[in-house]
Amino acid sequence: xxxxxxxxxxxxxxxxxxxxxxxxxxxxxxxxxxxxxxxxxxxxxxxxxxxxxxxxxxxxxxxxxxxxxxxxxxxxxxxxxxxxxxxxxxxxxxxxxxxxxxxxxxxxxxxxxxxxxxxxx
Length: 121
What we know:
mainly beta
């Protein structure tokens, strides 16, 4: 069994910064990618950013130029540093993990429960 747990959400003012964390736990043989999606009220879930197990990042349009994703392989933890926050960034942020599980070896996709980010003055 593999699970991910997000943290770091909260209330921040426009222009401020937040750092989200997502820790993966369980029978992990290899992280393929870890990333973040977000969903605002009344909107569909959208891609924010992801990073491969080798450390290659990929950013969606909402994140380009303002957010930075990083991966600590030793801790199975992905971070999302969000700077210059906008009210439009307010959403529930979900961690997504694509991995190879061990015992038995198989591909899995795992989602977290989400962490709420509110951007308001």
